[in-house]
Every structure is written in C-alpha cells, then in structure tokens.
Amino acid sequence: MTDILNELEQRRAAARQGGGAKRIESQHAKGKLTARERLELLLDEDSFEEYDTFVAHRCTDFGMENSRPAGDGVVTGWGTINGRQVYVYSQDFTVLGGSVSATHAAKIVKIMDMAMQNGAPIIGLNDSGGARIQEGVDSLAGYGDVFQRNVMASGVVPQISLIMGPCAGGAVYSPAMTDFIFMVKDSSYMFVTGPDVVKTVTNEQVTAEELGGAATHTRKSSVADGAFENDVEAIAEVRRLVDFLPLNNRQKPPVRPFFDDVNRVEPSLDTLVPDNPNQPYDMKELIHKVADEGDFYEIQADYAGNILTGFIRLEGQTVGVVANQPMVLAGVLDIDSSRKASRFVRFCDAFEIPILTLVDVPGFLPGTAQEYNGVIKHGAKLLFAYGEATVPKVTVITRKSYGGAHLVMGSKQLGGDIMYAWPTSEIAVMGAKGAVEILHRKDLNDPDKIANHTADYENRFANPFVAAERGFVDEVIMPQSTRKRLCRAFAGLRGKQVQMPWKKHDNIPL
Ligand code: HXC
After folding, report:
1. Where do runs of H (alpha helix) occur along 154-278?
2. Full-prediction pTM beyond 0.85?
3. In a mutational test of the pocket of ligand 1, which residue from 133, 164, 174, 186 has the highest number of ligand atoms less than 8 Å from its CB?
4. Cα 97 to ligand 1 centre (Å)
5. Per-residue pLDDT tens digits for 420-440
6. What is the 3-class SS of 337-370, one letter each residue?
7. Hey, is 78 helix, strand or coil?
C-alpha cells in the first residue's frame, strides 16, 4: 500500500516539474512565471483543486510516443479568489511550448463545461506556441471545441483571458471571444499572422512587439482591455476585477463590506464644472468622488480616452460606469468610443450589473474619416446597447448633452430609469453656436446680432430646466450631493423587473 501511495506522490511530483528544471529556468529568464506559479498567485492559498494531472497525449507521429509528459502542457481545475469559485486553465510553456494537442484542448473543454454547469467564471492563462504541429487536424478540432465553449459560455459565466506569452494564429480567437483580455507588457503578443508572413504578403517590416504586443492591443486595436508590467501585477489585477463580478448570469454581483458614508457630501463637486463651457475638467474626479472609498477599476484605460468605462461600488454593490471625458476630444462620441462603451454596456447587462452614465457630450465627431468608417453603425451600437439593457440605469448630466448623443447616453427615452442633471447642464438639440448659424444665416455677417441670438439661445436652452419641465430629467440636483443621490437611486431600483418582447436574439448593428 505504501508503495502505491509513494508512486502517486512521485507521479505528482514529476507532473509538477512540467518541462523540467532547464525549461523552467529559461521561462524565468524571460521574466515569466511558470503555469503553476501563476495559479498559486491567482488563487487563494491551498484552494486549487487540480484535474487531469496525468492526462497525456495519444499522438504517435514524429516520435511523439517517446515523450508523453503528464498534464500535456496545461494545468486545469478550480479554486477560489477571495473565497469565490473560479475555474482556471494555465498553459505550461515549458511542456512542448504549451502547444495545444487534442488532449490539451479536451482538458480545457472539460473545465469550461464544469464552469458553465456550476456557474463560476473561467480564467484562462495563455502561454502557448499554438496548435501542436505534430498533431495537425486533431489539434485544430480541439481548438474548435474550445471556441464553441467560448460562445456557449458567453453571457452565462464571465470569461477572462490573460495573455502571458505567445498567442498566435487561430489561437487568438478563443481569448477574442472572452469578456476581458489582459496582456503582460514585453512578454506577450497576439496576432493572426506573425511578422514573417506579414513581410512576405505585404512587404511590411514589423517586430512581434509592434505587431501584437500589449501597447498595440491596448492603444491601437483595442483587442486587449489592459496591460500590466509583469505576471505578478497582471494576476493581482485580475483578482481585483473578479471581486466586482457576479459568478454567473443567475446571480447578482457580490456585495462587499464598505467603509464609506452613503450620505457623504463633496462640496468640491460644486465647482468641478468650469465657468467657461469650453474649458475641460476631469470626469475621473467625479467618478472617484462618488465611488465607495474612491475605488475605480478602469477598463480600456489606454483606448478612446474620450469615454471612460469601468467598475465602482456604491453601498458595496458593483456599478458599471460609462462617462464622457471632457479632457479628451471634449468628450465627443466617435467610432472608437462608441465601440468601447457599447461592449462594456452589454457586458454589464449580461451580468446584471447596474449602469451609471455620466454625461458631458457635445455630440458626435464630424468628418469624412468618421463617416467613411461607419460612425452611423458604430454609434448605433451604443444606442442599441443602452436601449436593450434592462439593468438599473441611472444617468447624471454634468454639462453638455446635445442632440443624438443626449439620447444615446442613458436617456429616459432609451429606458434610463433615473435621470439627474446638475444645474450646470445644457440639454439641447445642439450647441448655441451651431443653432444660431442655421436659424439666423442671414445675420452671419453681423457679429452683434449673432452675439444677441446666441445669448438668447443660451438663455433658453443652456440649462436643465426646459428638459426638467417636461419630465425628461427626473430631478436637478446639487453636485455635492451626487453620491447620496446615486446610492438612493440604485437602492430604489434593486427590485427592477422589465419584460422585453420575445425574440431569438437581437440584431445589434455589428
Ligand atoms: C509543437 C512546439 C510548438 C508547436 C513550440 N513548440 N511551439 N511544439 N507545436 N506549435 C516547442 C518547441 O519545439 C520547443 O521544444 C519548445 O516548444 C519551446 O519553443 P522554442 O521555439 O524553443 O521557444 P521560443 O524561442 O520562445 O519561441 C516560441 C515560439 C516558437 C515563437 C512560439 O516556438 C514558434 O514559433 N512556435 C511555432 C508557432 C506556430 O507556428 N504554431 C502553429 C501556429 S498555427 P523543445 O523540445 O526544443 O524545447 C496555429 C493554428 C491554430 O496555431 C488554429 C486554431 C484555429
């Protein structure tokens, strides 16, 4: 009996060694942790339940029968993050380059199925040379099985991808279908075709980092939602994110202990909006000042800075924030910001996370570049996302809220529940200058008349009261009491129930 137990321990120890000391050393030399070291950091101490430790591939081509490492290049199972269950897979680059065989894929599929059945998020730590070349189409089929699980799990359990090494070719499409992608700076990259193929086909010369590194995907392509300095920071930030999210689409987000006063007033907010309507101010200040303990988890911080997206808590409960940022492009809506925000709104709605919208928007960005690239369709995405979202939606207008953009940004007409406006709000079909130039075209050569017309228009519309008279705004509030108002508003909406007409699914303008 003791011999059998010893054998199990020996087999386990061998499996934990992955590709062996030399390859682990080389992994460390690249500044990367091993698959198991990463899981140790990601999960609560001693919470990891591993499955399929002894799974080995069945390939007999190219001499593969002589090398059948236990685990087959991926560590899978479940554990907890601050006591809440998550399913995980962590690719082991030290074992055959973390390449994906049929059995490697089957291990991932198994835990994805368990995650969906048991209602817990899936976190994938990606570090792989892609399809196991020796296995050919068997590997391809394995990827297909994972992709299908990504689709089925979407909107059922949160899916988070951490890219911590290579992720190339068709392999990128599994993370691409998950809810969030985070990358590690300088040691991870994602691309459909690598620099060599790019050179052959398009004659462009580009490094792997330039083509698909963390900076590229967080600043240019928006494929990734965040980039971190190293493995440790990336893993710590994923733990922080998980704390904001519900485990599945049947549960509410977690309620965390909070140590902030619900009735906290912030007198400094009364002077946040400058007297000059064209002067910017930092909308992040408002977010930090209303949030419990000032904590804001920003998503896509480096992309489309004219809109801010991320999570805060109010009374310990998660709220998704979408906010125009006057500091960047005057907070205008354009293609990039519409795409960024609509995906975020849809995530929140899928997982029952209430949405707070903070509005200071001069409209949609004009120009041929925007029109030729489809700002109509992309802007419609955001409109559609808000209109279909049935979670509690509370909106605060701080300054400008003009035209179509006013309707897009969490308006009552698009199912907004509570609409507050600061006294500094300007709710109108367009800005005074543009309106006067159309209404009084004949006076354009007379600056005095134009100035009078502009002042008239501003007096009439550059305030929240016309909208408030009609009930389009529920209440004009003091800026300093915004946190208290928001906590009350969301508390009042906790029992919200909405029935939408039956449909197989909608047809959002993609
Ligand atoms: C089998 C692989 C492998 C793979 C790496 N290895 N990738 N084995 N299949 N895809 C093995 C290497 O042979 C090596 O084994 C070990 O992993 C470490 O690899 P190195 O090359 O030494 O590491 P490094 O120098 O860091 O380079 C990493 C790399 C390179 C850039 C990822 O390994 C590489 O280019 N691999 C091939 C990538 C690729 O073409 N994959 C297929 C893409 S097609 P030893 O024994 O020497 O340590 C694809 C389609 C997916 O993925 C389709 C889904 C729909």
Report:
1. 173-176, 195-202, 208-212, 214-215, 231-242
2. yes
3. 133
4. 5
5. 999 999 998 888 888 888 999
6. HHHHHHHHHHHHHHCCCCEEEEEEECCECCCHHH
7. strand
